[in-house]
Each structure stands twice: as structure tokens, then as C-alpha cells.
UniProtKB/TrEMBL annotation, chains A, B:
This is 3-isopropylmalate dehydrogenase. The record marks 135, 190 as: Important for catalysis. Binds 1 Mg(2+) or Mn(2+) ion per subunit. The lineage of its organism: Bacteria, Pseudomonadati, Pseudomonadota, Betaproteobacteria, Burkholderiales. It is found in: Cytoplasm. Substrate binds at residues 90, 100, 128, 222.
Amino acid sequence: MKIAILPGDGIGPEIVAQAVKVLNVLGESFELETAPVGGAGYAAHGHPLPEGTLALAKAADAVLFGAVGDYQYDNLERQFRPEQAILGLRKNLGLFANLRPAILYPELAGASTLKPEVVSGLDILIIRELTGDIYFGQPRGVRECPDGPFKGQREGYDTMRYAEGEIRRIAHVAFQAAQKRDKRLTSVDKANVLETFQFWKDIVTDVHQEYPDVALDHMYVDNAAMQLVRAPKKFDVMVTGNMFGDILSDAAAMLTGSIGMLPSASLDANNKGLYEPSHGSAPDIAGKGIANPLATILSAAMMLRYSLNRAEQAERIETAVKSVLAQGLRTADIHEAGTTLVGTEAMGDAVVKALA
Amino acid sequence: MKIAILPGDGIGPEIVAQAVKVLNVLGESFELETAPVGGAGYAAHGHPLPEGTLALAKAADAVLFGAVGDYQYDNLERQFRPEQAILGLRKNLGLFANLRPAILYPELAGASTLKPEVVSGLDILIIRELTGDIYFGQPRGVRECPDGPFKGQREGYDTMRYAEGEIRRIAHVAFQAAQKRDKRLTSVDKANVLETFQFWKDIVTDVHQEYPDVALDHMYVDNAAMQLVRAPKKFDVMVTGNMFGDILSDAAAMLTGSIGMLPSASLDANNKGLYEPSHGSAPDIAGKGIANPLATILSAAMMLRYSLNRAEQAERIETAVKSVLAQGLRTADIHEAGTTLVGTEAMGDAVVKALA
Ligand SMILES: CC(C)[C@H](C(=O)O)[C@@H](O)C(=O)O
Ligand SMILES: CC(C)[C@H](C(=O)O)[C@@H](O)C(=O)O
């Protein structure tokens, strides 16, 4: 089993190092190979997704990804900016299914900006389509406005689109995920305005016939954003497109107040996947040894479960993470009075110790 | 001064009636004329935006709008559904600037699902572009997928677009609104992915040169959704496109926990406007006399300020609303122990009394 390790920028290398430490004590014989990505890829090879890095990711059974982006790359032309690496990996590896759990650990209920009764016990799964929609749709660009009151002026434009097969496959992933949970799926659309999402709604409704044991409902994206704030625990699994999923999954993660705890998986049709923390590269705290490595460690657990067929190892890691929380260990992002403040390495070491 | 009164569906007629009552006691000689819209328009004339209703709205100096939508219209073809009325009014009247204040009244801090310290004193203004973007962009529809791995299948598609002049005019509205407040403007985009919003960002940055007294920052939409949950009070004025604004303004409204209190204004280039509560038609409670009329009454106040040049009357109404809250009067949606539960009419009467 070969795992591509892509630490990236900012706090990426520090947090990935802890996850690697954890992987190394599991007693498995994984082959880990590291390559630069994002700003680090640009610095080393003049491109955020260097050819060698892409080749490694393609050849591997799974990819463990840190985070990309740092100040010095902010003013590069768009095609060279760090985030192009993540878009390129998703597209080239066909990682169409993004799984983003939003879980509030009981010990961290205080970290949320929401009242405890609104979020305690929160456990929702957002499934975001990741290789379609307006993220990749053509044509796009800046052109002369062809008609209407602004005719002749410059205009920026993009194309939103979803083909039937693209909607079907993500719907299957979502219904199957719901079957393993509370059997409730909310499909989020904007069918009242967008043709793309009326079509999305129709296809999801059709796929539902194959999953009569799952209760399906449809919700407009603006209402979904409201309900996530009002009563997030009412949701079980949510499925939506790439653009809406980008917004809603981040909002849902922030409900927990502890985005430093949240992993993510991006899967292809054969359960090969890329695993990364839900948070970003946080260049402001990079190199200080204070970043929370748990989201990355939990991403490694998701990798073991979904791509490497090692569900027991995944559970071992998840149990170890819960036990370090129960011990009261906290990195700065989740620290509160009465708990023990630790750094990135000490947190990684504590998980390793808890695994033993 | 002529005001078009469009009550619409669900609780629309009940809440608009209270706002009309308030307008009638101001001692102004407004001419009010009522017409059906939404489902009521369809029921009366076979179209959600009947010709007579549109003509009235065009002829009037301002439009006071209730809400549209009810169960019996849910399965109509899209072009006949109630929400087409609101899209049609926006487009036909050129109402490109949507102003959505999210204000938390101190008396209602408990209604929020967020912790009091996170939201108390919240006062942000979201400015949403309302006649462009993917809401109206052509082409759109369902077609045969022209290329890629799904070639030949059906696909739904839409066009996102913003012309330079469209971005400039909403940017001017936003900078000028910020000048009247705390002089801070956050422009929300997705420039890292979308050509439309890289262009948006460039134009907003250019317009900023004319407003050196306003501090401008740019934020990605996913991050904006997170920051609204994490630290909403950090914002002053936010400006964004139609689609992102739809999502963010609803999320921001829900932060207050009292969306029944929030008005909105949709303005054209000459400050003619349509005014409506931020909440919907709530058909589940229609006809029960329990809906909160304050958002509609406060929308009438915005109308007096922006379209009818009666700022003092607007303030009188706003002060009257604050005083009924201070008296402890609450409709069911904002009721809590220790306050007095009142119905729609009684709340309207209390505002009228407070005005006297
Ligand atoms: C960096 C950016 C391109 C990316 C996205 O929009 O998908 C990020 O926000 C994410 O959610 O992974
Ligand atoms: C009803 C719908 C078309 C509308 C919109 O999406 O603009 C509504 O959500 C709103 O925000 O006024």
C-alpha cells in the first residue's frame, strides 16, 4: 500500500508530520512517499502541482494532504497560485465525492459560538460534489458583454453545469452514506432559480427510488444556510453541488467552533481518495509549533477506513483522539480554562501514546 | 406619492395590513393601491405577476410587498410559481441593490441560537446585487452535454455573469452605505475559482479609489460564511453578488434568531424601491393571526427613508417598534418567559399607539 504524503504550505508540514508519526506506529507496512505541493510545489518546480507530485498521487493508493497557501504566493497569476494544486488533484484523480463530517466532541462544546443545547451532540455529514459545477464548467473568462443594457462592456462569466451521470454518482454515494447512519438525506439545491439545480433535484429524486429505506427531502440553499444556524442537529446527511457545498460545509464546520478537529475525504469511483483537514494553511501561525494536528490525524483515520480497508485501525486512531481530549489536552485553538495547553508535537505524541 | 401594496400569499396579507395601518396614521397623504401577486396573482389572473400588478408597481413611487408562496402553487410549472413574481419585479423595475440589515435588538438577544456575547449588539448591513449573476444569465436550460466524460447525456446548465457597469453601480451603493456607517466594507467573492468574481474583485478595487475614507477588504464566500458564524460583529457592510448574497443574507438574518424583525429594501438607480420583510410567506401559520408584522412595518420605515424622502417618519416608526419591544410585547416567534404574547393585530395596534 502506497501513500502519497503532500504536506504543502503554512502549517501543512507540521500537522502532516504528526499524522505520519501516527501512521508509523500502527504496525502496518505502508510505503510513504512525500512530494511538494501548492506554494512549495511552485517554489521547487515552478508549478503548484508539479508533474512528479501528480504522478505520485496517481500511482498511490491514497493521498494524505496538509494544506496550501502562503502570503508570498498571493499575487501570482491565478494558474500558479497554491489552490490550483487542490483543484488539479481533484480533477485529475476524479475525486468527485467530498465527505465532510461536522462533529462536535462533547469535551469541546464550549468552543462553539452557538449555545450548547443547539450544537451539543452535533454529528452531520456533508457530501459535496467536487469535480463538476461552476468550478470547472466551460466556457468561462472575461469577454465583451454580448447583449442587454451593458452590451459592449467587459464582463466576467462562468458556466454552471451538471450532467445526469455526475448527479447520479454523487447521489448514490449520499444515499449509501445515509443508509449507514440515520437514513435521512437532505439534498440542497436552488431549483426555484437555477436550471442546473432543478435538473439536480429531478435526478436525485429518481435515484431515491433505489433507496426506499432512506428518507429524502429537498431544501433550497438559502434555507439550508439558515437551518444550519437555527437547528443544525436536525440534519443527518446533506448532499449538494460543488459551489453550495463549499459554502455550507465551511459554515457547518464552524458551528462546532473547532474546525481544527475536522477531517475530510475526497473519493473517486473506486474509493481511492485524498484526505485533508477541513481547515486551511494558517500561515500566520506556521512554524510556531502550536497548530492543532488532530484534523489531519483524523483524516489519516478516514484514509484507513475508506481507501486502505483498515477500519479497525481507523477506529483505534479515533479512540486515541477521544482519549487525549478526555485527558484534557488542548492545542491553542481549542484551549479553555481547566484544560492543558499543548503544542503540535506534544499533541501528536499524546495520540501515539494513547494508541499503545 | 403613490404606494403599490402587494400583500401576496400566506401571512402576507395579515402582516401588510398592519404596515398599512401604520402608514395611515402618519398624517401623510399617500395614495395606496393594492394588487394581487404570487399565488394570489396566479389565482386571480393566471400569472404570478399579472400585467396590472406590474403596471401598478411601475407607476408607483414605491412598492410594499408582503411575501409569496403557498402549498397549492408548489407543483405549478416554474414560470407560474409564486417566486417568479419577485424575480420579475426585480428585473422589470431594475431593483439592483438589495439592502438587508441584520440587527439584533438587545431585548431579543435570547432568541438567537448564538451565545449572547457573540451576537449582542449585532448591526451589519448586507448589500446584495439583485438583477444580475446566475439568476438571470443566459444561456441556461437542459441540453445534451457537449463534451467531457458525460458527453451525450442530458445536463442542466446556467450562466453566471457580471458586466463592469453592473459591478460598479452596486459597489458605489455599498461604499456610500459604508460611509454612513462605520466606514468598513467587505466585498465577498470567490476570485480563487470564478472568473466572474475575479473580475468583480478587480472592479470593486477600482471603485474603491473614489472612496478613500472607506476601508475595503475582500473575503472568499466560504470564509465569509464561517466568519458570520464565528464573529459576526466584526463586519460592518458586506457587498456581494446575487447568488452568494442570497445565501449569506439569510444566514446573517438567522444569526439574530428573530428573522421576523428584519426588513429589506430593493432599490433602483433612482431610489425607487420595493420593500419586504426578510422572512417568507409561512403558509403553515397563515390566517391564524399570530405572525410577526414588525419586519413589514420596519420595511415600511425603510420605504419612507429611501424612496419617499420621509426620514423623520421612518425614525418615528423605528422608535415606536423599539418601544413596543421595551413594553415586553412579543409575537409567538420571539416570545419568551416574562414577556407578553400578542397576536399580529395587537402588535400592529401597539405600534400605532406608540406612534401617537
Ligand atoms: C481553495 C479553494 C479552491 C477550495 C474550494 O473552493 O474548493 C477550498 O475552499 C476548499 O473548500 O477546499
Ligand atoms: C424566492 C427566491 C427566488 C428568492 C431569491 O432566491 O432571490 C428568495 O430566496 C429571496 O432571497 O428573496
